[in-house]
Amino acid sequence: MRNWLVVAIGVAALGACQEKVGAEHSSACAASASAEWSGLNVTAAVEGGDCASAQATLTIRSVGVTLFSETHAAANVMSLAQANDAAAMETALADWISSGNHTMATSGALPDWPAGAEAPQSGEFPFYPEEAMTRERYLALRAADAPLFCFVQGMESQACLALQNGALEKVGLQLFPG
User: Fold this and answer.
1) Over the stretch 133-162, which tens digit does the pLDDT of each residue have?
2) Alpha carbon of 91 to those of 52, 95, 168: distances in Å?
3) Interior CA angle at 109 toward 106 and 114, to 5°?
4) Contacts (Cβ under 8 Å, ≥6 apart) of 25
5) pTM score, two decimals?
6) Where are the domains of the chain?
7) Cβ-based burial of 149 (10 A; exposed 0-12, middle 13-18, buried ≥19)
């Protein structure tokens, strides 16, 4: 009888330990949001032990096919960094992917890249094209006036993607005051 009691106490203690370990490994900061942009599905999801250390993934899909996906530390993205719990993070994610919050809706709004200049000229808030982006390709994107999806990707910058012929192309990033 005594052995059964020891075994029962041991099993109860083991169960309590397993519950505690499971609770510590569950995500205290899990949130997501989705939106539509130019016929594409945009989703943002965050998961982590807490919101300060969570990873945020932005994904853009067309009919189930992933066209773009990028992951950032939520603490390093200005629009997500202040979210301290899952509810606040869900609100921040919805704002992050809202196409209504973008300053440039189409590639026609990208700053001009004059002949002879090393990069586009945008005054106070520089725009840096992707390394492989040529001036000719950049100007063609501007002329196409293609849908442009820009999202905050750091504390003082936003990345911009252009949609043409069902494909996304990363155009570059623009700095802004943080």
Assistant:
1) 999 999 999 999 999 999 999 999 999 999
2) 15, 6, 26
3) 135
4) none
5) 0.81
6) 29-175
7) buried
